[in-house]
């Protein structure tokens, strides 16, 4: 994280990335540690096992209609 700043607003510290405020904490030390941790995570390579089997696609198979007549629930109301 190259472009960030930690500014004090009242009794809290706000971490800003560019013009966006992204984190609010109670101490400057905690803000600096969280920025360091985030920078380390951003530099890591993704784990192979997480990227190999991951799929967020939907199942595109057609679902067959059930056998027989299915009554219309709205038609049964008095």
Please estimate the helix content.
25-40%
Q: How far apart are the termini?
A: 64 Å
Supply the number of helical segments. 2
Task: Detail the poorly predicted runs.
Answer: none
Structural commentary:
This protein is α+β, with helices and mostly antiparallel strands. The chain has a domain of 43 residues. Helices cover 27% and strands 23% of the residues. A 3-stranded antiparallel beta sheet has the order 1-2-3, covered by helices on one side. Strand 2 and strand 3 form a beta hairpin. It is elongated and about 70 Å long. The N and C termini lie far apart (64 Å). The model has no long low-confidence stretch (mean pLDDT 79).
Descriptors:
single chain, 78 residues, alpha+beta, 3-stranded antiparallel sheet, 23% strand
SSE layout and pairing:
Layout: E1 4-9, E2 12-17, E3 20-25, H1 28-43, H2 48-52
